[in-house]
Structure formats: C-alpha cells, structure tokens
Specification:
single chain; alpha+beta; Antithrombin, Chain I, domain 2; Alpha-1-antitrypsin, domain 1; 2 domains; 9-stranded mixed β-sheet; 8-stranded mixed β-sheet; 10 helices; 17 strands; disordered N terminus
Length: 414
Amino acid sequence: MNVFHLGLLIASLGSFQSDPTPEDKHHVSGVELSAVVDGHNQFAWEAYARLRERPGNIGFSPFSLASALAMVQAGARGETAEQIGKVLHLPADSASAHRALGLLHRGLSGDAGPRGVKLTSANSLWAAKGLGVLPEYLAMIHEQYQSTVNEAPFADDPESARRAINAWVKTQTDGKIAEFFKPGAIDEATQLVLANALTFQGTWAAAFKKERTQPGTFRVSSTRQIRAPFMQQTGKFRLAATAYGQALELPYTGHDAALVILLPRQAEGLAELEKHLTGPFLAEWLRQLKAETVTVSLPRFTITAELQLEDLLAQLGMPLAFRHLGADFSGLCSTDEPLALSSVAQQVRITVDESGTEAQAVTAIRSSRGLGNSAPREFKADRPFVFVLRDLRTGSILFLGRLADPGTSPREEK
C-alpha cells in the first residue's frame, strides 16, 4: 500500500503585499478574490461549529486547512473535486479559484520591515522516485503556489526523508515546530508530501507594558476560578457592545492585521455566543466597532493543540475523498491504483503576550492508494472568550479559537 502525505504549515497570521503584480491584476479580479476569501471564512465558521463541541481550549488555522485542501482539490477530479470544492465554498470555475487562491497565498509572503510584522510563506513538494506526478499539476502548484519540488527516498530511506521534511518545517517556522512528522509517520509506502509554511510575528500597535501585568482571577466557570497573569493598558481601541457581550479589536503595527476578542457577558455565556458564530454574525459585531478610550485587561496565554480532522471534514460534506473505492485524484498523478485521503491533522501553537502575537499551525493530509472622549470603558477578559486573527485588508480569518482556561494548554485534542 502506498501512502500520500500532504502537510501544510501555517506559523501565524500576516498581512498582504500592497500591490499585486501586473500579471495578477490581469488574471484575478477583486470579485474572484473576494469570493475565495468569503468561502474560506464560511468554511472557518462551519469547522469551528464542529470543534466547539470539544471541551477546553481550541486553536486552529482555518486558512491553513483550507489552503491544504485547495491544493489537494486541484489534483482531484469528478465528484471528489466537487465535494472538496463545496466544503471550501470555492467558485465553480476551478482555474479562476486557484488563480485567486494563488494570489492570496503569494500575498502572505514578504518581510514587512518597519511595519513591525514579520511574515514569510513557502511551499514544498516532496515526491517519491517514479511517482509520476503529472506535469500539469506540478506547473499549477509552481505557478499559483510557488512550490518547489524535491525528490525523497521514501522507499529506500523513509527515516531520512522524514528528517529532511521536519528540518524544512523547523527552518520555515523559526524552530517553533521542530517535529511535525513523528517517527513512523513516514514509511516506505509514502509517496508524496506537500507542505506550506507561513510564519507570522506581529507586535501590537499599542504594546502592553510588562510591568503592568498583574495576577488576576479568571472565571473558568461559575464554580471554578484560577489565577492568571493579566496584561493591562488604557488607550484608544475599537470596541463594540451587543446583547451577547463585547468585541475588542487589537491591531498590530501597520494596522493590516488584528486580533479580535469576542467576550460574553457572563462566564457561562460562551456556549450561547458560540451558537451564533457565523460570518454575518461577526460582520455585524465588526460593523459596530467604534474607537473609544478603553481600559483593557487581557490574560497572557499560549494554546497548543494537535487535531485529527478526518471525521470533521467528512461530516462537512467531503466523505468521498476518504474512500479507497470512489476517491478520484487522477489529476495529481498517473496511477492505476486508487488513491484516497487517510488522515488530516493540524498542529497549532498560538502565543499572545505583552509585545504581540506568534502563531503556528501545521496541517497534514495523508492519503493512501488502495486506501470617543469620555471616561474609559472597561474590557476585562476574565472569562472564556473567542479570538479571531484576521487580515484587515481582505478580511481573511487566519486563526480562530477559544480560550477556556489560560492555566491549561493541552498538547493534543482528539
């Protein structure tokens, strides 16, 4: 049995290049780009609606997951491609969709320099000798996703191949994700690994002073409280108050990206707020944001998680991709044997502290053949809340999660 791995790594949020190239302007319209972003965001909320059923902290990158699946969808055909496209809400015109996705991906590359945001993006394809990846597929991922191609000795020395891929991941994430593929995950049956690495480090437009961070009480529930370090400052921020709670936007230097905190009114109010989380719901909260003088109290936190996502994706509407009999990935490589996805996993690390935010996520997809001027308002995040890491130019949701307990950071959630 041969195995196809696709790993996608997103190490954090980022902003986009200011000006598309003339070629991009010619091939991708604003309507096409907007349709892809809207589809990504709708997918984000639908995935979160499944993940929120799990207890505790949640952190994932819908952008990473959607990007990985989009590159898989480019190699799918027939009903398999249709199901993946519908789950991602991609435009019906596949070529147009991938041109727009390519522009979106390439826009995440580049060092923002004085704007205070470090952002890099890279793709890499690792193929077994003699796999027979189709030239047209290679050309597409090179043109749209700027992917490099490497030959890997999966059959002869899978451990060497695993170490090489993990080294690439570690380099692309500044060492934050050192071992994505665990021992045994790459074996002699492995045929292909497709990886994307996106790394973000952003500083707050208005940094929190470390000397003002003080221990405080975080109300995990109505019956449980813990002590946690709370960052504090008073300044001008965009704030909204609704029937469900408050929303606060914390921009990064350059104001091209921001962290949005959705805070319920009561410690037990998060579940009710989460029931309503959709694109239009968030859009309404964002529409009501207004600049005010706000006293902010926010816990410092780190969330790490490892998520297995095959069941979630099948439930969202793409079960065929996981069936050995029926999946069609004939647009990826030439083979007489069936090829099907066997696992989809994501590793996530998100850190929010006084200086800003770092976030990392790795998504791996494995398949197998045969297989105002007034008194300050208060925003005190002392109870479970939802956070959204957004690109402000396009509105793309890049990271999404829930802080249920700043005192815990589960390594693995299944």
